[in-house]
């Protein structure tokens, strides 16, 4: 926290030399859902970045709003309310990539800056900070191919059916399989990004599966999968994890007990703070391309202990992005 | 006395809306403008149409749990087929209205509980919506977008549309002969049947009307959002029921009010915005919305009781 404040203060000093003054600007976060550890960590990241920026006089307000029912029509109304509340910029994690477009167009027409991240929107007037979920799926198979060159059967844990993220990661995994034909997906279940759901689903499918060498996941489902394998008395395969604290704790325990080795990747919930700084940069008058990419946060055998120590219990590994990080991401896109 | 009673029925929803509106303007003076009122209420238009659709079903003592899924399906069709092939799109929407009429006839003919049939149908509609639009997208037909973003003089689109919808549906349901008979089906179906009216056809008509308003709701929604999503209107099922009740309607007895239903839908939308302006934590917002509902219903009960003791 101290380093965060210090660096924010340094940024405040640096920012005084920028083109436009953003100290009177107000930024709002429109969030569609808060019901899991990732989203809770995301809201915390926003709160940290936002309150530090307000304290340092970089912006006038950084308020967070979450809709109660995770519905697009509700979020559209929320965004329209933000226009009325006189915000200068809206940062959106959208319930639907398309169903908010009308409200977002209204916001753009009213002169607001709209930045979408994680759940991005297709409306051309908004900025998009996207995650390459497809790549996230492909990387997992690539890692497995390095570790198990001879290949074998894989189990795929999918997310929530019908959600764009689930389809993208799964498509990436398919692409990875095509590139590494020594692997076959011998079974797939929906774990809904939740440990308990994943555990039940895996326990249900396990008796019908041949020997599984690896499990590709979407995050939030690795620990449940491991427990299901354990309960069935089968050897633990190579499970790619998704940066959840319980998953990493299990990984560390397994490593200490029998030298278990794997990797873990996900998007840091801190991406909310990145979106905040991008919005601030746009208000500041910076030239920002409409499409930006967020890097993944990867945890390896070497970094496990450090990341685990920093991650609060029940949360997700995260990093807080600073103004300089936002500038780096913007430059990388140009 | 009955007249007074009827007047009270619409008076209470209207007063609740005005009180809430005054509180909102006090909280957020920026909303008190042509632009602001439109932003506050434009998303209430599809909800008002959905509420009227639900009202048609509640008018004949049934309840429709598939409305949200149905409107989502209409939205998907509007953003895809209607946009690319207008004639085919119109035909499909007409077929959907016909399907609603058949549903009404089936429910009456086999004496099935509407709540179960419509719950089942909600999965059918949702499945069809996912088939038509597996991932969010599509785009609104240009004319629809124009209609929903039109800027009439003096009053914003949302207000003009709400008044028009309320007026037309009032004439249809309360003033017209067939509307009166339909309400009679809800009041006492046996008498209406003995008076020589074909109950099967009446029930089918009520459902068809619900289908028409459901289609209009889906189209209005796409006109506002510009594109669709298979889950876009799921919350409309419960919102529409709450809207009818808030507007002075009842679950049984054919006691409904078209103007009240529109006011109910506006009140629900406004309540959500008001709570958001209050900066209430989202965890409390659903509860607070429920509290507003209970408050209005309690007030209504007190009025009704007093009215009954006087009459």
Descriptive report:
Chain A: It is found in: Cell envelope. With 334 residues, chain A is of the alpha/beta class. Chain A has 2 domains: 2-131 and 268-295 and 318-333, Response regulator (Rossmann fold, 3-Layer(aba) Sandwich), CATH 3.40.50; 133-266, 3-Layer(aba) Sandwich (Rossmann fold). Chain A contains 12 helices and 12 strands. Chain A has helices spanning 2-15, 37-55, 72-84, 101-109, 133-147, 164-179, 195-205, 222-231, 245-258, 271-283, 304-310, 323-333; strands at residues 26-31, 61-66, 89-93, 113-117, 127-130, 152-158, 183-190, 214-216, 238-239, 264-266, 291-293, 297-299. In chain A, the strands form 3 sheets. Chain A has a 6-stranded parallel sheet, sandwiched between helices. Chain A has a 4-stranded parallel sheet with strand order 7-6-8-9, sandwiched between helices. Chain A has a two-stranded antiparallel ribbon with strand order 10-12. The longest helix of chain A is centred in the N-terminal third of the chain and has 19 residues, at 37-55. Chain A starts with a helix and ends with a helix. Chain B is mainly alpha-helical. Chain B has one domain (42-305): ABC transporter involved in vitamin B12 uptake, BtuC. Chain B has helices at residues 2-27, 34-41, 44-59, 67-79, 81-84, 86-109, 114-132, 142-148, 157-175, 177-194, 199-225, 236-246, 258-277, 282-310. Chain B is globular, with a radius of gyration of 19 Å. The mean pLDDT of chain B is 90. Chains A and B meet through strand 2, helix 3 and helix 4 of A and helix 2, helix 11, helix 13 and helix 14 of B.
Q: What descriptors fit this protein?
A:
heterodimer, A: alpha/beta, Rossmann fold, 2 domains, six-stranded parallel sheet, 12 strands, elongated, disordered N terminus, B: 311 residues, ABC transporter involved in vitamin B12 uptake, BtuC, 14 helices, 77% helix, Peripla_BP_I (chain A), carbohydrate binding (chain A), SBP_2_dom (chain A)
């Amino acid at each position: 926290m101290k380093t965060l404040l210090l660096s924010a203060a340094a940024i405040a000093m640096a920012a005084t030399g920028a083109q436009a003054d953003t100290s009177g600007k107000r930024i709002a976060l429109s969030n569609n859902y808060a019901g899991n550890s990732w989203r809770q960590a995301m809201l915390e990241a926003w709160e940290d970045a936002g309150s530090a920026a307000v304290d340092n006089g970089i912006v006038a307000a950084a308020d967070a709003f979450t809709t109660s029912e995770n519905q697009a029509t509700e979020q559209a109304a929320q965004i329209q309310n933000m226009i009325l509340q006189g915000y200068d910029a809206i940062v959106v994690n959208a319930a639907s990539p398309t169903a908010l477009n009308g409200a977002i167009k209204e916001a753009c027409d009213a002169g607001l800056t709209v930045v979408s991240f994680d759940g991005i929107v297709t409306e051309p007037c908004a900025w998009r900070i996207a995650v390459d979920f497809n790549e996230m799926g492909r990387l997992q198979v690539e890692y497995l191919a390095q570790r198990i060159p001879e290949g074998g059967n894989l189990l795929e844990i999918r997310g929530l059916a019908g959600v764009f993220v689930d389809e993208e990661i799964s498509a990436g995994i398919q692409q990875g399989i095509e590139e590494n034909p020594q692997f076959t997906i011998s079974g797939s279940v929906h774990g809904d990004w939740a440990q308990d759901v994943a555990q039940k689903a895996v326990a249900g499918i396990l008796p019908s599966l041949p020997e599984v060498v690896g499990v590709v996941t979407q995050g939030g489902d690795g620990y449940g999968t491991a427990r299901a394998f354990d309960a069935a008395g089968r050897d633990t395969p190579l499970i790619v994890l998704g940066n959840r604290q319980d998953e990493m704790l299990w990984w560390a325990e397994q490593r200490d007990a029998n030298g278990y080795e794997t990797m873990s990747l996900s998007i840091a919930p801190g991406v909310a703070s990145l979106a905040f700084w991008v919005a601030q940069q746009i208000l500041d008058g910076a030239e920002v391309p409409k499409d930006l990419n967020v890097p993944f946060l990867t945890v390896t055998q070497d970094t496990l202990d450090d990341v685990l120590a920093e991650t609060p219990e029940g949360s997700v590994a995260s990093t807080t992005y600073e103004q300089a990080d936002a500038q780096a991401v913007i430059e990388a896109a140009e | 006395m009955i007249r007074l009673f009827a007047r009270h029925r619409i008076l209470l929803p209207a007063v609740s809306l005005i009180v809430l509106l005054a509180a909102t303007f006090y909280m957020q003076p920026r909303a008190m403008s042509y632009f602001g009122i439109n932003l506050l209420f434009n998303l209430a238009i599809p909800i008002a149409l959905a509420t009227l659709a639900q009202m048609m079903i509640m008018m004949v003592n049934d309840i429709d749990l598939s409305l949200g899924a149905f409107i989502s399906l209409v939205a998907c069709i509007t953003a895809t087929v209607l946009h690319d092939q207008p004639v085919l799109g119109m035909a499909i929407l007409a077929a959907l209205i016909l399907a609603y009429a058949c549903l009404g006839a089936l429910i009456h003919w086999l004496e099935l509980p509407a709540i179960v049939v419509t719950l089942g149908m909600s999965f059918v509609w949702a499945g069809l919506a996912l088939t038509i639009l597996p991932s969010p997208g599509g785009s609104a037909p240009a004319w629809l977008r124009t209609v929903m973003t039109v800027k009439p003089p003096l009053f914003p689109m949302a207000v003009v549309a709400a008044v028009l919808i309320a007026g037309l549906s009032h004439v249809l349901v309360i003033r017209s002969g067939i509307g009166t008979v339909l309400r009679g089906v809800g009041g006492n179906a046996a008498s209406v049947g003995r008076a020589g009216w074909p109950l099967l056809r009446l029930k089918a008509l009520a459902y068809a009307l619900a289908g028409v308003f459901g289609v209009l709701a889906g189209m209005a929604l796409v006109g506002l959002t510009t594109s669709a999503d298979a889950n876009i209107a799921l919350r409309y099922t419960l919102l529409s029921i709450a809207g009818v009740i808030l507007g002075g309607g009842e679950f049984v007895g054919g006691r409904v009010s078209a103007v009240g239903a529109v006011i109910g839908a506006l009140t629900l939308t406004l309540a959500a915005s008001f709570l958001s302006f209050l900066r209430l934590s989202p965890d409390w917002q659903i509860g607070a919305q429920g509290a507003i509902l209970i408050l209005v219903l309690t007030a209504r009960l007190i009025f009704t009781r007093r009215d009954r003791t006087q009459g």
